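User: Can you help me understand a structure? I only have the sequence.
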Amino acid sequence: VFAAAPDLANQTITFLWTDWNAANLIAFLLFVGAMGKSAQLFLHTWLPDAMEGPTPVSALIHAATMVTAGVFLVCRMSPIMEFAPYATGFIVALGASTAFFAATVGLVQNDIKRVIAYSTCSQLGYMFVAAGVGVYSVAMFHLFTHAFFKAMLFLGAGSVIHGMHHEQDMRNYGGLRKKLPYTFWAMMIGTLAITGVGVPSTIMKIGDVPLGFAGFLSKDAVIESAYAGGTDVATFAFWALVIAALFTSFYSWRLMFLTFYGTPRGDKHTHEHAHESPMSMLVPLGVLAVGAVFAGMIWYKPFFGDHHKVEEFFGIPTAGEVHASAPAPLMGAAHAATESDSETAEGEAGEKVYAKPGEGAIYMAPDNHVLDDAHHVPAWVIWSPFIAMVLGFIGAYQMYIRRPDWPAKLAANQRPLYLFLLNKWYFDEIYDAVFTRPAKWIGNFLWTRGDGNVIDGGINGLAMGIIPFFTRLAGRAQSGYIFTYAFAMVLGIVVLITWMTISGGAE
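Assistant: Let's start by predicting it. Here is the structure, written out as tokens:
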């Protein structure tokens, strides 16, 4: 299938009575499946409700397994995606929109697990942006690092809920860092990782590797790759991701400040009896903390920092020199547009050999230079997510530590906007009006008219109408009078004789 991917770019498929480019249509339909699996915008509504289950299940679902399967699918389908520019453009736009949308909703949520769930939705958008601009290794990098700090945040939230006797509303927390010290530090490390705390690469590197928490290296790699994408939709994605980084920092520190700082709120008895979780819950937090701190720096080069190591890590045959006697190659015209992009370049001396689609775990076309260009972006691009992270922290600190009365005043003054975000952009209400209610009406109509009137009515009509009619008719024939039976016998004989006479008898 992957070997035939270049041919798909030049073929058409009829779908819904319309001719489509085969590569773009296949890539788009594959992504629609990934949209639902990875909770992208418009198919995202299930994800926050899925965190109602046990916290360890939430940690697996939201961190390393189910929701990330859509990102993995798109990356593994990279041989097709590379020849589908319109589909990948759609992926970039939707991923960036999802990152921004989920980050805005996370700003005002009060359930501790729901905040983290929306952060998952937002981070998945980052991953899809990276895949859409063609740096599939960076998408997998963020998927990899995200698993550590997101699982730790969920398990940390579970530890808080356990210590607070199953209370999940952050408005009823406050001042818990002394009651739950180990959980506090685990959540602190997770927050530093998800907000992207680190030293920008323009200041310092250690062995060509930036210094920072796991989320810092992978998220910055995504943002820099979005800028390097060069297209209008990639530019939109860059700014959307920077703004989402600011919001991510704000709601992450808001969670920390509401939970572990300030004065205790809510039920006094619950706060007095708040307690640290047992070691069986704390040990996994410690293990994940190691990954949240070091995973980004350790795996930076195989995923992003060194092109050769990226190829080696993902099993992509390295470009090499060919024999001088080899025939000249076909020259491709544009990225994701011609079959020759994927041909093994068997050219004259000095021509490189490029991997064919499907030869590695991921595929990047010869004219896909985003991975290399991302290392040469302007300094202000590198600093943008760092500045956004700092601004988010300052905003949360100002509103929840220095002036804790501000959030209520702001919500009152900007009530329509507050309700808009609190109700998740009213997606649930819109879907209820557009899909749920009409579906219920159609179901009720088919039940009353179809099942009730036709099916039940037909059976009841047969049982209570036609059968009793023939029963009564047969009952009248059984009158009990001898002359009636004699008349019936004579009538039967007359009918038989008449029939035999007309038909010619027994010839």
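Now, to help you interpret it: The longest strand covers residues 12-15. The chain has two domains: 5-312+369-422, 432-503. Let me know which part you'd like to focus on.
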